[in-house]
Amino acid sequence: MTEIAGSLLILCGAFFLFSAGLGMLRMPDVYTRMQAGTKASTLGNMLVLAGVAFLHPGWTLKLFIVIYFVLMTNPISSHALARAAHHRGVPMAGDMNADALRDAEASRENAQ
Length: 112
Fold this sequence. Notes:
82% helix, elongated, 0% strand, 4 helices
């Protein structure tokens, strides 16, 4: 029964990793690509590693440490890359009108 549960978790994780790759190809700009890749790949990696933990119970602690590492570093690194891209002036998709970071920086400059 644990082999079936582990295999299903790995299969679900592979689906999310595939959707992350598909999102990276289909999204129009850097920011939406980053969001699609980060969210889906974080969940996909966590599911695959949890599935491996079911298949190899002796590795469970190490795999949960890796899951924690992925859960902490993947969104933070994506956020840092998005801020760097915004700072460098990488444009958003053509139909995007809102830029909350630009507005926040402008209000901060006006307050000083």
